[in-house]
Write the structure tokens for this entry.
Amino acid sequence: MKGSWVRAWLRYAGEAAKIMRLVFLGAPGVGKGTQADKAAVHYRIRKISTGDVLREAVRNQSSLGREAKEHMDQGRLVPDSVVIGLVQERLADPSCENGFILDGFPRTVPQADALGKVLVERSLPLDRVINFRVSREEIVKRLSGRRSCPKCQATYHLEFAPSKRGNLCERCGEALAQRSDDQREAIEMRLRVYEEQTAPLIDFYEKRQVLSHLNGAEAVDTVYHNLLKALETSQTA
Ligand code: AP5
């Protein structure tokens, strides 16, 4: 009994001590956010989703939100200068000292360069970049069926991950909504933008030997299991 308690404590302490600095890369809808939520809890590290930060600014109708909204609704990227500043600010926060997951950043080569510069300045290594891969057909299915909570950002899917409370968020009870950029036209544009501006980052990080590819087309729990396996085996790379 005592031995199992000690083993459990050592496992807890080991996981808690692990500092992970991660980037989750992939086309819209591959499941970056879903997996980032789970991994952030597991490693007790901060998740920074530029999409969530920008949507919050839009909801608050701040000047950033007003600038971002037009780009986001059309499925285009928000200008690098805006997004880089946001991420720099968050990475400087003490809550990132134990590590972080960047979900949806970087998305362009200038953003990746800016991230590299910040990390070098602070002598922080980037442990891993995970590239989630899912077919285009599956992506369209996932995005068109996605429903999100406008209040706490929890994500559901009408078919693959429905809320147990129907159209209400399981966590906070808010009515779920469809994102404005999950309409067909915006989805097409986001996929085009991904191919043109974000896909080159695969090569960028491959050259720096920090990239792992992951099949994101499996069930959520299977992807998560494989993600943890990939992170545990490639930490020192
Ligand atoms: P952002 O919010 O980052 O959108 P995205 O990258 O397009 O990614 P998504 O959130 O759509 O998908 P995801 O991969 O997180 O998948 P999810 O887990 O939700 O960005 C939105 C906009 O903000 C951009 O278009 C741009 O305008 C702007 N922006 C953001 N970052 C920027 C940057 N760095 N630079 C410039 N502009 C930026 O899953 C999707 C659905 O699938 C869910 O319903 C989920 O329940 C379901 N699902 C997930 N995994 C599985 C699975 N394994 N099996 C079945 N269903 C699954």
